[in-house]
Specification:
alpha/beta; N-(1-d-carboxylethyl)-l-norvaline Dehydrogenase, domain 2; about 45% helix; two-stranded antiparallel sheet; Rossmann fold; 2 domains; 8-stranded mixed β-sheet; homodimer; 17 helices
């Protein structure tokens, strides 16, 4: 194998910068497989330089560009302050320049920017590149649900897996021990078409493995044999750190869905805690949340989702437990009930108008359930939506438990 | 049906009194099925009367017998103070008198007293009675593991199910909403022997459904047809309250095992939190704990355990999440790491020498794993034991994650 993989990160928030740190640590450690430098696309902006002698000696005391700061003091001063980034993680404000020549693209940006960003890439990436999406959430439009890994696949024409887990970014950045799950089921290098015919230039993505509500029709370019195989072993070398334990599974959809749906349940857990109901009640909400995640996967991703992703993987139960105990969705929902106001109100007063992932996911999933005529199969998801809309309050939770116990084992 | 079920509770700690409260509320509500009075066996002792006018008007200001206090002011002043008990929950200090004529026995006492208590019953119960064990823990002796439901079955010769869930007793007593799981798979009233022969007087317990390490050879008396059927519907009527949502499953062993093994994992979660590692790490420990619970069930209860009990029921994941966030095992382990002392030391200094459920279960399970030659299949359980014994510290957790990820999917 004569070529090394060029790895890039699209996005540089706290989670994007943390993943960039991990990737750059590993490309240096496995320089036989990867080019050492990892480019990170940064949406550039002016940042203040903190009142710190070392930083001001290098950057001055006037506002500087975020990319300049990252490449000079190797810190993301705005989104991940205090964490030393590897010197081989290179901030780049030019999206197309970042992706040029990259064979592995890691996507890690807020879901509301992903569609536009993919358009702006304008096919400047290698046609045979492979992607990993760390983006939480699902895209709902016209009664269909699309995972961001699928959207990337369709818009860029590259195979894309997903990464998700119990990974509160600042804790990972501080190198506190945790786990994550990568879903990756890309075609192997020695891929043959299902009819056994010699490999032609394009590989059909197996439609059975896509979302039932919107199968995609992507054809993939094979990765040239001159590159190291992109398989679970290579992905482990790229993402695992002593403090970041990676498990690779084939269930891309389950990994992506877990990261999206858990935020609905985190809101429910916050409502319960705000009500003062304690750990037993929260545990009931988490348990029912897992059941509805599994059910969601079974109905709309019957061929691709492995329910063990929800019940046994970091991207499932572990991420859910973490999100239902900490994180913005949980806390905001908790405050809303404590103060007797809506979550919308909390977004305005406490988050400066920033929207929570959980509220947009809940509304998107509700719209989808309604169009698909499946609301009654998801009493908890619908309940969270109804609370957000002011149609009910957390006091009606007993009815949800009741409805859930009447839904037959799936 | 001419006879009503007589229901009794054996044990009167905070959880026993709480379950007694629930049962007495329901026997009154369903007086067509149950005798209204519920007898509760209380290990009698002198208790001080709190400085409260209403209580002292009725009880005086000298110490009184606990049974007298319960039957007079309808509060368990020692173990569940401040909670009003139903007047039809009757404390009885005489064990044999309590069980006499009872057709449903609910066991809810600390596991270290169960064996002796069963001996003291001296077969004064009805031979065809049915039992429900709310006792957490497993009994390990000579390389075999016995669930308390099995021990009750063997010692009393009655069929016994199990009840467990995310049920921190004071929260249930305060009527905060929660769920529980009952495992019950008793023979139906119209039971026929497997060879199709007319029912003889004794029903063989299906050995396949018992522990692999120690199958039991109990024969059961059929419940007379004059009683209402003891089935999942009847158990729901007996245990469900608007604040206590009951799910009945057939997997008695899984329900009992969940309640026992979760305490090992609660200790691990406490160690992690004491170390200051945060939610991501705790979620990893919980996730691995579920995997080891499932594996334990698969190896030693292959016919009886349904792994969904661990991943989907209140007795599994929900109870585990609760125990890993609150409760004495979690808190004591957390304090031990924070103070740099052993858990044994915490038991001495903070618990007045009282032993935690988690430490005894961890040691019992370790002894069992060792005798069965299966230690390497349970890296987390063994790790908790090693920490308790001072052989390692929580700092070695990364090795546990590593070992776990190398154990092939079960």
């Amino acid at each position: 194998m004569s070529q090394k993989h060029k790895v890039v990160v699209i996005g540089s928030g706290n989670w994007g910068s943390t993943i960039g740190k991990i990737l750059a640590e590993n490309t240096r450690e496995h320089s036989e497989l990867f080019e050492e430098n990892v480019s990170m696309w940064v949406f550039d902006e002016d940042v203040d330089v903190p009142d710190d002698k070392t930083l001001r000696d290098q950057l001055g005391d006037k506002p500087v560009k975020l990319t300049h700061a990252i490449n000079t003091v190797h810190q993301n001063l705005k989104y991940l302050p205090g964490i030393k980034l590897p010197v081989n993680l290179i901030a780049n404000p030019d999206l197309q320049d970042t992706v040029k020549g990259a064979s592995i693209l890691v996507f890690n940006l807020p879901h509301q920017f992903i569609s536009k960003t993919l358009d702006q890439i304008d096919h400047q990436h290698l046609p045979y590149a492979r992607g990993i999406s760390c983006i939480k959430g699902v895209d709902v439009a016209d009664g269909t649900v699309t995972l961001y890994s699928e959207m990337i696949m369709e818009k860029l024409g590259i195979y894309c897996g997903s990464l998700s887990g119990a990974n509160i970014a600042p804790e990972v950045a501080a190198e506190n021990l945790c786990e994550t799950t990568i879903g990756y089921d890309g075609p192997p290098m020695d891929y043959k078409q299902p009819d056994g015919s010699p490999q032609d230039n394009l590989i059909k993505v197996d439609e059975q493995r896509q979302s039932k509500s919107k199968p995609s029709h992507v054809k993939l370019h094979p990765v040239p044999q001159t590159y190291p195989h992109v398989d679970s072993g290579l992905l482990k070398k790229l993402f695992s750190r002593p403090y970041f334990n990676v498990n690779v599974v084939r269930d891309v959809s389950g990994v992506a869905l877990g990261g999206a749906l858990k935020n609905i349940i985190a809101l429910a857990a916050g409502f319960v805690t705000g009500k003062g109901w304690g750990e037993n009640t929260k545990a009931a909400v988490i348990r029912i949340g897992v059941l509805e995640m599994v059910r969601f996967g079974r109905i709309w991703f019957p061929q691709s989702v492995d329910e063990r992703t929800f019940t046994e993987e970091s991207a499932g139960i572990a991420d859910l437990v973490t999100s239902a105990s900490a994180g913005r969705n949980f806390r905001s929902a908790c405050h809303a009930v404590e103060k007797g106001v809506s979550v919308d109100e909390i977004e305005k007063t406490e988050l400066g108008g920033q929207k929570l992932q959980g509220t947009s996911t809940t509304r998107a999933v509700y719209e989808f359930l309604e169009k698909q005529g499946q609301r009654e199969q998801f009493p908890l998801f619908v309940f969270v939506y109804d609370i957000l809309e002011g149609r009910t309050t957390i006091d009606s939770l007993p009815e949800v438990l009741d409805k859930e116990s009447k839904i037959k084992a799936y």
